[in-house]
Design brief:
The complex is a heterotetramer, with two copies of chain A and two copies of chain B. Chain A contains seven helices and eleven strands. Chain A is an alpha/beta fold. The radius of gyration of chain A is 18 Å and the shape is globular. Chain B has helices spanning about 15-20, 95-100, 140-145, 205-210; strands spanning about 30, 50-55, 60, 85-90, 105-110, 115, 120, 145-150, 165, 175-180, 185-190, 195-200, 215. In chain B, the strands form two sheets. A ten-stranded mixed beta sheet of chain B has the order 4-3-2-1-5-8-10-11-12-13. In chain B, strands 7-6-9 form a three-stranded mixed beta sheet, with no helix packed on it. In chain B, helix 2 crosses helix 3 (about 140-145). Classes of the chains: A alpha/beta, B alpha/beta.
Chain lengths: ~240, ~220, ~240, ~220
């Protein structure tokens, strides 16, 4: 019987090695897999390349992973936000690398990675500094930039409900980058608020089919980033 | 161009937003940038319905929820709590930017640091050495949305023109802006450069010229 | 108030002109918008380029459109099937053009058309006759073919439920090409088995958001192709 | 190579399918081509669970429905009525081929017209002048699925070898086939060419060589 459930976040992330590339779902706090990130902090793997739209807020979750010195490089679209201070300090100190990718190009590069499309063209960034050094191609009279697919060794994902086969549904705008990251990682690790029976998700409503999921942990009452910030919580 | 002249009383932020809203056709799919653009939702003309897209995965975005009813997983691109209107839909980021990149969003209203007379937009970075670059979805929006409207003060807080012959800040996109709504005037980007569409009450064409760092054509009606 | 409903299939397709390109959803009979196709036959627009995975079955629906001499060119992956005879006859007589595209490349070209991706690379067809004349590019040690986006003037779509804003859900494997075709056409025309209230589809379950839909016709009891074939029905 | 020799009694279609099923690991995501490959579902070894993908948009495909329970909108890639198992999911064609092209399907079992000793597959067209080309999803499957297994009679109905040095029919893909299950033998595609993995009972290595139009290496065990 196929059963992708694993007992704890610690066991689910246990094989992430130094130097691994890790996609982390979420846009701001929506869909951010905090418990998996904290398990990765406990594990201590270093020299990571992390792909996320942002760089975390406050001093828990992704910000804590960065603050703990485990991230060598961030690939993201927007490393600033009202509550982000950990990344800016490290960046200004030259202690972390940054690759800025426009949000739509980031999403599409990840989708391409998952869909077996090694490269594609987009009009985004044409004529801007972010297109420098990239191949420009004129197609039907308009210039486009060539962008390469983005894949990762692991993806850390948060969803709402899941079944043992790895079928997932999300909560509202917590969907964001999670479904495409599930597709683009060699090993996709998911925390679900609830694991339901195998026929508990209507086949018409599945957002991430189980084929894209490798490991599944139930985290019934996940931490909420904005509450952690309000409470000044610092992990670990 | 003067940078030390006394402040001219033009349109307020709300009036600028109202002028933008008046120009958006009924039934449009609209993406609003953070800041003044968000005010547009308050001025939808009677009888029109706009459907708001937020690039983090929601079409049919509604207003902020009543206090206490926030869902930390129902937010907009500015990461503020919002609601979903009847007929809304959720989708992932790749699908969301397919809407943007594929030309399905009718109107995007954005703020600006600089707009050039050929419609180049700079709104993501000062290019300063210590600045942390952060582009978000702006480059995708300007490259993909059918009509890009800019809503901005005519000059910076220190009085420097934002409408320029050529942007000195790093670009967000080239030839993308259709029209600029400033506190002093509505200005079109035409093949001949900036052209006044409408002046704010009590503001003269010369006053706008003085605060614009590029040639400015008068309104066709004037 | 936004209301994309139109009273009849005839009114929904009335502006399709000679020479138009038309994507038609469906895979075999699943998701095939027969009533819209029949309205297009009644309309009589000719010289059409039609994009569909197949070329129709029996002598109703897409097969009838082709048999009626309205289609100049088919773009499809599989123009043969057990009940297709109209297309093979015309093709062997040199009366219709054919562009063969592998099924996955066809789906991805359409998705690219809808997503503003003008071209992409895929490993499909490398080393085969279908790659002849196409650009080959080696990326990370593997050869890929460049493929261009595919768009159309119109899409004819069948769905299960819809609301007046154009939000759609489908029935099982009737989903197939319909959602991507909705994205890739200038004018997307949908026949729904049922039009429901605007809050009648959960925002989490919407498959095609209304932004991709222009016109909507309710067809409560659509024809079923296999029954038409069994009954020997020939349209018109 | 002989084309007129008397028929050799090898494995039946069911036995070939059973041999394929025995080689597929538990928990695999499997796509089955039309014809003999479909028989694989009947021989899943005890204790193993396969999840079947059909490229027209269903993961978790189940067996044919009982007569009278067919839904014309629940079909497989061969356009036959099927069912959906518990834990199934529906998706559109672009997502379905993202699974294929992205390397997420573990095993695809296909029929063949010809397989070459370097793993090229021809299974979509004879290339005849009056043939109507029809490729379907075969080229995407062979390019994207991790392991391509071929199940086929060793020779054509007229006795011509299907395992050849170089395919004469138009190719479906190059260097894609891992292993061939014929009525006479299981044959691996190795860097050195065709190599027998297992002979059918009562079939000799020489008999297989005679019916193969390329050099054939004996089984390592023999």
């Amino acid at each position: 019987m196929i059963d992708k459930r694993i007992a704890t976040p610690a066991a689910a992330v246990a094989d992430i090695c130094d130097g691994a590339s890790v996609m982390i779902g979420g846009f701001g706090e929506a869909g951010s897999p905090i418990e998996l990130i904290h398990a990765l902090i406990d594990l201590g793997a270093r020299d990571l390349t992390v792909i996320n739209n942002n760089t975390g807020n406050g001093e828990a979750g992704l910000a804590a992973l960065i603050g703990n010195g485990q991230v060598r490089k961030m690939i993201c679209s927007y490393p600033r936000s009202s509550h982000s201070k950990v990344f800016p300090e490290l960046y200004r100190a030259g202690k972390i690398e940054l690759e800025i990718v426009p949000q739509g190009t980031l999403a599409e590069r990840i989708r391409a990675g998952g869909a077996g499309i090694p490269a594609f063209y987009t009009a985004s960034t044409v004529g801007t500094p972010l297109a420098e050094g990239k191949e420009i191609r004129n197609i039907n009279g308009r210039d486009y930039v060539m962008e390469y697919a983005l894949k990762a060794d692991y993806a850390l994902i948060k969803c709402e409900n899941a079944d043992r086969l790895g079928n997932l549904v999300y909560n509202k705008t917590a969907r964001n980058f999670n479904p495409v990251m599930c597709m683009a990682a060699t090993v996709t690790i998911v925390q679900a608020r609830k694991v339901v029976e195998v026929n508990g998700i209507d086949p018409e409503h599945v957002i991430t089919p189980g084929i894209f999921v490798d490991r599944l942990v139930e985290v019934t009452a996940p931490l909420i980033e904005s509450q952690l910030i309000a409470q000044g919580v610092r992990y670990p | 161009m003067t940078t030390n002249a006394p402040q001219i009383e033009g349109w307020s932020r709300e009036q600028m937003a109202e002028l933008v809203a008046a120009d958006i056709p009924d039934g449009s799919y609209v993406n609003l940038g953070i800041g003044i653009p968000e005010l547009v939702t308050k001025f939808v003309p009677d009888g029109r319905e706009f459907i708001y897209h937020t690039e983090n995965g929601l079409l049919g975005m509604g207003p902020a929820p009543a206090p206490g009813y926030e869902d930390p997983e129902l937010i907009n691109a500015g990461k503020k709590a919002v609601t979903a209107n009847p007929g809304a839909s959720y989708f992932h980021h790749a699908d969301s930017f397919a809407m943007i990149r594929g030309g399905h969003i009718d109107v995007c209203v954005l703020g600006a640091m600089q707009v050039s007379s050929n419609g180049d937009l700079a709104n993501w970075s000062t290019g300063a050495a210590d600045a942390i670059p952060a582009v978000g979805g702006a480059m995708d929006l300007v490259a993909g949305v059918k009509t890009i409207l800019v809503i901005t003060q005519h000059t910076t807080k220190t009085g420097l023109p934002k409408l320029v012959g050529q942007c000195s800040y790093p670009l967000t996109g080239i030839n993308v802006v259709t029209r600029v709504y400033s506190d002093l005037a509505i200005i079109d980007i035409t093949p001949d450069g900036f052209q006044v569409h409408k002046l704010a009450p009590g503001v003269s064409f010369k006053q706008v010229c003085d605060k614009t760092d590029a040639p400015l054509l008068p309104s066709k009606e004037s």
